[in-house]
User: Which sequence fits this backbone?
């Protein structure tokens, strides 16, 4: 008997089924729906997947043969028919085996609409972090601070180049932006005035290592409602090894009390980085593959919004990930997921940024296809006023987009804009076949270029980590739903329309 | 009543092709990390 028509439908890329903890999970990629399966149904899905590799038609005999081959229990015709019937109902509802929207590619106006800038107000730093992609603050150049005039031109640039968009973003970045705090203050004042004159709102963020985060600056950030991303790697020994001062001394003891103090001022900070928020972010490396301990350490300090990310490094770096690290990293994400659930159940909640997935309220498909927007919606500006696709490309001449001091600063180098615009999910053959494509958006351009020298080839280790994080994130979502039956989707309710 | 499959989240991502693209959401890399594209970790703000 032929079951469900799977011709031209590649299950592997469209429905991701996996075992996480004690749950059998199916994520319907194109609709974004999420299902909990019993073990038999999971085995059937996997058997269909395997069958598709060798045959076009999916039959009950074929499924049972695979189940026997893989030493899974074979099913009676009735059992299989029952499972298939449930699948078919979901297919008709559009939440399982859903089709990929066809012919969707982001459609951009000829002139880029840049709505976000990263202002490198200081190419200097008071720390010498080992893994700094900014070359310990100087981005391969000399140590310089951005002057006020350049900063103002940067703000004028984003207000102008954002066209009809009335929400702009300015991130103060470095090096360490608080080394140029006077200019930051003047630019916030200038930006607020210049923005309102154009009926636009600028959302400011500041990314800091926390060394200079004294009471006065903390109060200022509060008053001006500036979102803040603070760098802390976790346990003292882990942090100090990678984030020392120029004299080699660790910075943990200095910054931790300041970061703690600041985060308590924002108890309602959004886990999804909405409004005025804070995030404490760290980097993990080959040296701390048990980085779940670092996240927990930060949670124990009372920090609620935590993001810890894998280092991007060259193979020559001692702290770069090595063969064999991936399994340990996966285990760390598994442990972290369990610990987070445990703490939430005990009312000791914290958020881990990469475990946040708002499936039914997430961004629209267009956003998911186009990704971070580097090089056309988002640009970074060096202290000298040079424009680059993003903060990680600053100083790389081949990627320079222009300068605020050009005759027409809004004119960005068309070839670079085109390359970044076209490097979307569908431009990458690996991503087209990947079940994580709409959550990942094809990865980070900077990481892809660093590892493959191409914008359209992916950084494979990054893919493994991305997929693992997503698996745990979906698992957490299901566990929490089960714990709170009220939040379970009502099986009889119509599919909600997502507003975007 | 479904015996084998329990739906936890019903979503309709493809439908957002018609409604989306407003561009009000934050640039993904600005939010919490600056080292990875985190579109999947954001929410729609409209
Ligand atoms: S970058 Fe990797 S994980 Fe992301 S969509 Fe592409 S293949 Fe998938
Ligand atoms: S290229 Fe990478 S680092 Fe740059 S904005 Fe995009 S995601 Fe962020």
Assistant:
């Amino acid at each position: 008997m032929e079951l469900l028509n799977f011709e031209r439908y590649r299950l592997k890329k469209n429905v991701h089924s996996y075992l996480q903890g004690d749950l059998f999970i199916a994520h319907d990629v194109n609709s974004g729906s999420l299902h909990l399966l019993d073990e038999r149904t999971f085995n059937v899905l996997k058997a269909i997947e395997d069958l598709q590799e060798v045959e076009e038609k999916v039959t009950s005999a074929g499924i049972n043969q695979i189940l026997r081959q893989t030493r899974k229990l074979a099913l009676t015709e009735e059992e299989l028919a029952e499972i298939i019937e449930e699948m078919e109902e979901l297919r008709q509802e559009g939440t399982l085996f859903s089709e990929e929207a066809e012919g969707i590619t982001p459609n951009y106006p000829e002139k880029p609409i840049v709505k976000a800038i990263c202002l490198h107000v200081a190419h200097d730093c008071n720390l010498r972090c080992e893994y700094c992609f900014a070359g310990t603050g100087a981005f391969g150049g000399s140590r310089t601070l951005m002057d006020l005039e350049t900063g103002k031109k940067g703000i004028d640039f984003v207000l102008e180049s954002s066209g009809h968009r009335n929400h702009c973003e300015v991130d103060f970045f470095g090096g360490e932006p608080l080394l140029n705090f006077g200019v930051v203050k003047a630019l916030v004042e200038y930006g607020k005035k210049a923005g309102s004159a154009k009926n636009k709102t600028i959302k400011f963020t500041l990314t800091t290592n926390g060394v200079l985060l004294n009471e006065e600056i903390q109060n200022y950030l509060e008053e001006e409602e500036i979102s803040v991303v603070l760098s802390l790697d976790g346990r003292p020994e882990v942090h100090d090894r990678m984030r020392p001062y120029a004299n080699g001394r660790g910075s943990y003891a200095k910054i931790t009390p300041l970061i703690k103090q600041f985060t308590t001022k924002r108890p309602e900070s959004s886990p999804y980085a909405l409004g005025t928020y804070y995030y404490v972010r760290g980097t993990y490396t080959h040296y701390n593959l048990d980085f779940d301990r670092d996240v927990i350490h930060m949670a124990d300090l009372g920090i609620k919004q935590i993001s810890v990310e894998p280092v991007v490094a060259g193979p020559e770096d001692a702290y770069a990930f090595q063969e064999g690290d991936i399994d340990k990293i996966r285990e760390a994400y598994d442990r972290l997921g369990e610990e987070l659930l445990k703490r939430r159940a005990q009312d000791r909640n914290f958020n881990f940024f990469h475990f946040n997935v708002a499936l039914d309220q997430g961004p629209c498909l267009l956003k998911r296809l186009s990704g971070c927007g580097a090089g056309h919606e988002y640009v970074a500006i060096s202290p000298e006023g040079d424009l680059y696709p993003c903060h990680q490309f600053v100083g790389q001449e081949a990627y320079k987009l222009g300068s605020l001091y050009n005759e027409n600063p809004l004119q960005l180098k068309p070839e670079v804009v085109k390359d970044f615009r076209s490097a979307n999910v569908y431009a990458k053959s690996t991503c087209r076949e990947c079940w994580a494509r709409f959550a990942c958006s094809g990865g980070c351009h900077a990481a892809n270029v660093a590892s493959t020298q191409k914008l359209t080839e992916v950084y494979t280790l990054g893919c493994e980590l991305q997929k693992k994080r997503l698996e745990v994130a979906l698992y957490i979502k299901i566990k929490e739903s089960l714990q709170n039956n009220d939040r379970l989707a009502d099986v009889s309710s119509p599919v909600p329309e997502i507003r975007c | 009543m479904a015996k084998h499959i329990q739906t936890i989240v019903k979503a309709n991502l493809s439908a957002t092709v018609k409604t989306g693209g407003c561009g009000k959401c934050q640039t993904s890399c600005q939010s919490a990390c600056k080292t990875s594209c985190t579109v999947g970790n954001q929410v729609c703000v409209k």
Remarks:
- Residues 333 and 469 of chain A are 7 Å apart (CA to CA).
- Chain A has a mean pLDDT of 91.
- The two ends of chain A are 42 Å apart (CA to CA).
- Chain A touches chain B through 100 residues (CB under 8 Å).
